[in-house]
Fold this protein.
Amino acid sequence: MTSQQALLVLLPFIAAFGLTRRRRFTAVIGMGMFSLTLSAVYLLLNAPDVAITEAAIGAALVTFIYVLAIRKTGRLVIVGDEAPGLLEREGDRITGLEQEILAGFAHHLGLDLVVHFLPREEVEEALLRGEADIAAGGIVHVDAEDRLLKTQGHLPTGLFHLTREDAVEPKQTQETEWIYFSDVLEAIRAQEKGAYTLDLARFIAVSRLDLSGYAVERLPGSFSYTFLLPPDREELHKRLSAYLDHLRQNGELDGMIRRYFS
């Protein structure tokens, strides 16, 4: 078999590789390889001018333009504050139940997952400004703004109110403002006065500290964690809700929950 014949046989396989990739970046690289191989075929057919054009435009210029476009459209951007067991840093990695759910969803869409940690007060505004696709990180459905889209709860939780015993009654205590959850940990570790309403995942984390100086009250009601999306992302909301339903129906969601909260 000659080199020309070998390249002609290889072309359909390279094209199939590029067309069947879920990740857009991998697909673009595959099609760039197709154009480069095709330019080699033209060269072997004694058409160097066509080969140079194909390599310059098909393999180089078009691939470069697609890569630039993918940098803006090929990502699923998540914002949220750290929540132990749900969305948290472990060295250079980001782990947790919600990270695993959203990483699987991003793969399902053929996108790259990008997570930005923000103060909890800025999370919903980032969605409304169009800077992120989904908000996560231990968001309880009752705390979310009505104008944002919410998914059905993926994990039950509870709410706990903590306040210093030497302060006024817990129900009358003004909520202490905090930027990141790490600020709450530092404040409680230092036994500072304050009042905090925490979800179950965060309460479990602070319960490992000395809470003897704090009064703890579990708030009545049924609560669950949810994901938030901008009001104009109805199609993404529909697809995420369908993906969560799929995880529930085949038992994958229960398996994920056991891995992080057993």
User: Anything to note?
Assistant: The chain has a mean pLDDT of 86. Residues 3-73 form one domain.
